[in-house]
Design goal:
By secondary structure, the chain is mostly helical. The chain is 66% helix and 0% strand.
Length: 100
């Protein structure tokens, strides 16, 4: 009876250890460490399945944040009025036509 209990416990430990998987480096740590980010990008490119989907997603997000310069949202310029000579299509079109 004791051997069955030990067998069940050892199988349970093995199964629980398999579910954890490797530790995933956070997006923030990768943004702060560009050399490690470069290494992981190369590993994801070479063997995505071995590195893991979650880690490669974190690498992609860190790359995006470094490229885009953080989480700053896009703010479009203020709308121009029709009287503004720069934005008026008529003035732009007429200035392109040579005068004889």
């Amino acid at each position: 009876m004791k051997s069955k209990y030990l067998l069940i416990m050892s199988v349970a430990l093995l199964v629980s250890a398999c579910d954890e998987g490797p530790a995933i480096e956070s997006v923030e740590s990768l943004v702060a460490n560009p050399e490690r980010l470069r290494e992981l990008r190369a590993q994801c490119k070479a063997d995505h399945a071995k590195v893991g989907n979650a880690q490669c997603n974190a690498v992609a997000e860190a790359t995006r944040q470094r490229f885009m310069g953080g989480a700053t949202a896009y703010t479009p310029p203020a709308a121009r009025t029709a009287s503004d000579p720069v934005s008026s299509p008529a003035s732009a079109a007429s200035s392109d036509i040579p005068k004889d």
